[in-house]
Amino acid sequence: MKRTLRVIVLRDLLLAMRRRADVATTLFFFVIVASLFPLGVGPEPKLLRAMAPGIVWVAALLASMLSLERLFAADYADGSLEQLVLAPEPLVLVVIGKVLAHWLVSGLPLVLISPVIALQYDLPAEAIVTLLLALLLGTPLLSLIGAIGAALTVGVRGGGVLISLLVLPLYVPVLIFGAGAVDASTIGMEAGGHLSILGALLLLGMVLAPWATAAALRISLE
Amino acid sequence: MLEVIGLGCLRGERRLFGGVSFKLKPGGLIWIQGGNGSGKTTLLRTLCGLTQAMAGEVRWDGETIQVRGEDYRRELTYIGHANGLKEDLSALENLRITAQLAGQSVSHEQVAEALQGSGLAGREHLPVKFLSQGQRRRTTLARLRLPNPRMIWLLDEPFNALDTHAVAGIKSTMENHLAQGGMIALTTHQDVAIQTADIQTLQLDA
């Protein structure tokens, strides 16, 4: 079981390494969107501080959205998804491996670059730490929820648009509590409550989303 | 023993085939024939459990394959129309990963040997996107040459895009497999001149 998980994660990481442009797209999108706002709204520190949590989180949502389409579509197109489904291991395990690899490639870089983005918005040090923690809890959840949408739209024409329609509403709680945590921390309040809810959502997502994704994949492959 | 009882499938509103029954014993081969769109691929996909049957069932050692689940999939090698290869990975990496995911533990040498046996010597390290269609098919089929093959082979048009030399190679691999008690279900438009005692044909045309 562990072996299958490792093989899947290593396979997807290897594929990402061979297609670095795809990985870079997600990260550049995040950085550019988050950097355009200060240019657009002007260098008013108070305004920027107030807007920062929302902007960084929306940029993170959209960036993770970008890479979702490829999560299963490429495997479906070349027939390797069939082979994954036929592996003598539970499909849930395959899904967990793919989601984990997706997060490592498209979520983790956003988390790591976020302190630099936060500096542009003149966030206080505590708020930067909170942002880092909130993204660390939130971005895996984005990958987990997104995988359900990606699995449902496998093999559907115009799947990319459909994924956004399916998944963005489900991202709303992550956005609210993620941005809320940073907001609270910016004005010097305790962010623990928001982070706890994000953590709880992540646990819930880890337990439920892979099953839903596996079921969706089976339906899509028929 | 693989047992198919009264299998029927629909595509959309249209009935593809119905009442398909056969038994496949160790050493047996079934050649599924039929025109384009007669449901050969659907039948193979139903046999491996990717598609649900509308009627009837597929049994492995007396139990339905849905009940046997992972045990059944552990006995199975399915090679579909699509090659299932990643364009950015080399033939070697593709074959190694496919085998590992199927739960077959293979060494680097065994994978290289299987590729060489399939006529891909010297091209093992090239990304698959630089290979021709025939070479890609050979890479996919090299899986059949790995040691400790799975019991049941479900092959959908395995000879597509292959030259006569490669076809002969695959046929002898299949003969070996049957001689060692394996089972094969295959669809092909080419003439199957495989030397085995137990060969059945199934005609799907309505």
Helix content of chain A: over 70%
Report the biggest beta sheet of chain B as strand number plus sense, adding barrel if it closes: 5 strands, parallel
The percentage of residues in β strands of chain A lies in under 5%
**CATH structural class of the largest domain in chain B:** Alpha Beta
Biggest sheet of chain A, open or closed, and with what strands and sense?
none
Give the N-to-C terminal Cα separation of chain A: 25 Å
Descriptive notes:
The complex is a heterodimer of chains A (222) and B (206). With 222 residues, chain A is mainly α. Chain A has one domain. In chain A, 87% of the residues lie in helices and 0% in strands. By secondary structure, chain B is an alpha/beta fold. Chain B contains seven helices and nine strands, in the order E-E-E-H-E-E-H-H-E-H-H-H-E-H-E-E. Chain B is globular. Chain B has two domains: 130 residues, 3-Layer(aba) Sandwich (Rossmann fold), CATH 3.40.50; 62 residues. In chain B, helix 7 links the parallel strand 7 and strand 8. The chains are: A mainly alpha (222), B alpha/beta (206). At the A-B interface, helix 1 and helix 4 of A face helix 3 and helix 4 of B.
Question: Could you list some keywords that capture this structure?
Answer:
heterodimer; A: 222 residues; mainly alpha; elongated; B: 206 residues; alpha/beta; Rossmann fold; 2 domains; 5-stranded parallel beta sheet; 9 strands; 26% strand; globular
Itemize the secondary structure elements and their pairings.
The complex is a heterodimer of chains A (222) and B (206).
Chain A: H1 2-18, H2 20-41, H3 45-77, H4 80-85, H5 91-120, H6 125-152, H7 159-186, H8 192-221
Helix pairs in contact in A: 1-5, 2-3, 2-5, 3-5, 3-6, 3-7, 5-6, 5-8, 6-7, 6-8, 7-8
Chain B: E1 2-11, E2 14-24, E3 29-33, H1 40-48, E4 55-60, E5 63-64, H2 65-68, H3 70-73, E6 76-79, H4 91-101, H5 108-117, H6 133-141, E7 152-156, H7 164-179, E8 183-187, E9 199-203
Parallel strand pairs in B: 3-8, 3-9, 6-7, 7-8
Antiparallel strand pairs in B: 1-2, 1-4, 4-5
Helix pairs in contact in B: 4-5
